[in-house]
Amino acid sequence: MTTFAKLMGAASVALCTFASAPVLAEGGTLVIGSTQTPRHLNGSVQSGIATAVPSTQLFASPLRYDENWEPQPYLAESWSVAEDGLSVTLNLVQGATFHDGMPITSEDVAFSIMNTKENHPFKSMFDPVDTIETPDAHTVIINLSKPHPALLLALSPALAPVLPKHIYGDGQDPKTHPANSDPVGSGPFILEEFTPGQAIVMKKNPDFFIEGRPKLDEIIIRLIKDESALLIAMENGEADMYPFMAQSTSIKRLEKDENLIVTAEGYAAVGPINWLAFNLESPKLSDVRVRQAIAYATDRTFITKALHRGTSSAQRGPIIESSPFFDETIPAYDVDLEKAQALMAEAGFADGMELTIDFIPGPKEQQQSIAEYLKSQLKKIGIDVTVRAAPDFPTWAGRIASHDFELTMDLVFNWGDPVIGVHRTYLSDNIIKGVIWSNTQSYSNAKVDELLNAAAVETDAAKRKDLYAQFQQIVAADLPVYWINATPYHTAYNAKLLNPPLGIWGTMHPMDTVEWAE
Amino acid sequence: MTASFLLRRLFYGILLMLGVVVLNFLLIRLAPGDPATVIAGEMGGATQEMLESIREDYGLNKPLMTQLWIYVSGVATGDMGQSFFFNQSVTSLIAARVGPTILLVLTAQFLSILLGVFMGVIASRKPNGILSGFVSVFATIGYAVPVFWTGIMLIIVFASVIPIFPVEGMQSVKLRNASYITQAVDIAHHLVLPAFTLAIIYLAQYARLSRASMLEVLGSDYIRTARAKGASEGSVLFKHALRNAALPILTVAGLQFGNLISGALLVETVFNWPGMGRLAFDSILRRDYPTILGVLFFASAMVVIANLITDLSYRWADPRLRGR
């Protein structure tokens, strides 16, 4: 055969191979761009998306959730809730191991839940957990002091990573344990490199307990603080995914890129709500008619359509509208300036009043722009608003936590179940000076306390939904907070990426099924 | 150069550093906001007990003067404390960041002196010529334009419109396991835009300064003598004139070092360069006191050392100072 013929032969073989190549690419690297810097990688002692995104790749947890809010097996292959609701039994999968090869036993699960109960900032998650029994290596019985319907959701990867007891049980403080920055988990990916403030590199766990997963070889989280740089990285293909994107200009810009898909899916359990909070200790705002007047004067549609260019959606109540617990009959307070003026007059402020509004410094669209819009809008009903800027987050947080404010724009997450992220804002026993994102409004209503406490232990889903419906009607009338919009979180990702994490927890969910198309 | 001169300078340097440590410590406490609230906020809310335990963990519940004493005595023994945010020793955090900052600052310093002095010298040949006019205009604009604006413009032009340079960071994540040579090329590639951004302001100043300084020297008698002896124009400019004109340039180069470090803070922030400036910026927003203080300490130490080197090189360049 001549050289030419050999070459032709080789070329035709190559062509055939190319033509019949599989649709799915083997392995590959996923680069996630993020503006959020994690303190460390252990979601058991730290809430927030910055830690949860890597933590859910590194640690497995008892259950995981599908896009319909239904629990699915993960480390627990099955589970059952006792009829009286006072205990939950988890049956763990056999043969699962930590990244260091040690088997995962019921001891590890029990240790982890107790550790999270003690050290995680969301006290309500595991507060009712009394004792945990471990009759054998693969059975965990969680005994509760009262029924706790939020328990199963709290066993999600974002909230309940299973830690290795043989590492964390050494007596060191779990909040500052050295392993938090160098974790040994049992998730689909193993930590390879963590450079604080710069990058997190995770490689495939070859011994992952779910056969054939993960699909990717590697996930790299690049921390890029400057959003414009991150956008260029997405456009240039240097980054493949940008979750928690909130600026309408960024969303609109990446939507134009044909190589990217931009979606608002995947934030249902996060439930990020942007709202105007009232300080009810202020004599001007203690009158509900003033708060209602402000609500009637504010145009949510203008905010979502004009200020946010249609990227955000209106939010009418304390529970995110994509949650099954949201009550659709909640009053909307559609704009009605005459009614607002009448309410002001009834409350004895016919001559108007002066108010100060704070906002979280940082991205302007959600916070400062709305504060400034309110300044011009509330003038129409005689309220003279001064916008008080804080130079940075600590200054704002210090003012709000010490109740030194009248109005403030704020952003608070629902965190899946109302028990975890909603109750804290409205329960009267959570009025704690010095603590941000407690009940800084000083709102106190005995009926609301009663409803929330009842809903926290109600195991009948329909009855629970009804209790939350009543709660929503009351707070919508009382208005300790005027809810404005859901933060327009979007995820942009490379169009060649299959099974992107768009369930209720978004990227705070194991990415073991994510893969590249050819 | 005498040993007593060096010792005296070192002693003043240490005294200065002590002053810097105490002043920084007190200044940063004047900023509103409580690190415990921030940490609790980062954690997603908290209880009163958690806030108190955070304050206790980080010694924030002790009287201010006690905290100052603990801090100063720690620094004296080389312990810069633990970062509130990352829970790692400040020394290790800074150690990882010093290299990138020094690389950026020295490259920018080198670029600005080299190009600036060259432009100044060329401009001084014909003080009323077109080239000289161009240098003056460029110098004025370069000096007047804010560094972050230059950075953003360079990003738009060279990373977005014509994407030939990477937009951020110091290394491509995907190349981190490549050979050393590939990695070095990759870092150099990432260094171009930030180093030029930082160099542009100072480049302009060197150009102006060296032009003025050269013009002064070129009018003196010994230059006329050199020319009369038949020395080439290049030799006159770079050998005879520049050495004498270099004194003010050296002084300014030393003084500029402090400015370069503060300029690096902005450039690092714009380009996501993983240096101390970026760390300082983020730490201030988090009220991470030990890290802020650590960065300020290292930055001040670098300035003090740079000034010392300036003094020494001044003596090297000007023999008249050596006896003093």
Report how far apart the termini of chain B are: 8 Å
Order of helices and strands of chain B: HHHHHHHHHHHH
The overall number of domains of chain A is: 3
Shape of chain A: globular
Strand content of chain B: under 5%
What's the helical proportion of residues of chain B? over 70%
Radius of gyration of chain A: 25 Å
Mean pLDDT of chain A: 92
Name of the top-level CATH class of the largest domain in chain A: Alpha Beta
The average pLDDT value of chain B, as a whole number, equals 84
CATH superfamily of the largest domain in chain A: Dipeptide-binding Protein, Domain 3
Structure classification of chain B: mainly alpha
User: What summary fits the major beta sheet of chain B?
Assistant: none
Strand residues, percent of chain A = 15-25%
Number of strands of chain A: 21
Pfam family, one (chain A): SBP_bac_5
Domain Solute-binding protein family (chain A): 70-418
Signal peptide (chain A): 1-25
GO molecular function, one term (chain A): peptide transmembrane transporter activity
